[in-house]
């Protein structure tokens, strides 16, 4: 080999290679160490979670009665009872102290303490505990597979949290149905349960939907009145619209509310009921307790029915039969459905004026036909045209349409139903103009409506006769 070639060849040095390898390892060591620590912390947390789950699920007590009481206490903690949740959290904290884990680091946990992390995993709702901890404006929590969406003030957004595995959602589903004496399994692949605060939870899984779902419609503790809905932060209506609603309530018109989900139908119904005299007998019929009138209006003379569609002995038909025997002055039917449409129509035509309900319809003009279609499913030989006329004249005096506009719930239309020339007509008493952000009053009450107001609310009739609300607008 020539001398020039020997000078260009670099000889391998074990010492130099070892030095380069050490420098490379020291550069990547912090990142790898952090990854190993996070992975190891998560693995250990899962192991401790299973250990705590086994510890809590083991029957406790010397007698069968004590073991039964403990099982009930565990179920009550799962469903949200504060005292039982506090007791279970204390049991988990004691277990952590016995294991000497109170100072052990498990990586970056989104929970304040290890006890709360284990509680959320075993008894609580996992990461939903973090979502539910911020109730400001929260109306609904939607879980699809591992993804979580939050509905706040009518707007749905992707949550900052999500489940790690679908099995975590399925575990929450089983916990929720346990206390409600329901089930969700391959034979019954859905369930509806109630939380302690009245929030309604709808569950699906086992192939009924492509992924397990969990939807929590939260019970809002806010007490809505018509005055509240006029405030700038809500602006569902203005002062003139509120005054018109009070005249409608006092005049005992039968009312119907339409609108998409989360447009504020329930809030409007509760605000209208709040304006009714406390001594008037009101009977409510719901598929699930949602209005919570007894809780929000303890002084009102109200009877609340929860009608189970699948139970003939306690279904809507039986609820209506019993309700009509309890001398109701008004009936509040949360939502007209196929099987009870005929009964509600009969109730409204037999002296229970001032009643209120909601129905799914694309517009006010479609409401009488929609109710007629549901009545025709009864199988009786009825003339649909006669039924539509009857509903227009006796069941749907006044209609309210709710809509979400620019993230704000608006009462966009108030109409009076009329039957003219064999068809349904709607007088636009109030209409919201989106471009001008104001409510206008295009039409007046019909002569029939004015006579009803004159009989029931003379003061309101005099106000309208003097040109209100158009003069007030000018």
UniProtKB/TrEMBL annotation:
- For this protein, the parts annotated as crossing the membrane are none
**Entry's Pfam families?**
T2SSE
Sequence ranges assigned to domain Bacterial type II secretion system protein E in this UniProt record: 212-379
The GO terms describing molecular function are:
ATP hydrolysis activity
Under the heading InterPro entries, the entry gives: P-loop_NTPase, T2SS/T4SS_dom, T4SS_GSP_E_ATPase
Family statement drawn from the similarity comment of this UniProt entry? Belongs to the GSP E family.
UniProt protein name = Pilus assembly protein CpaF
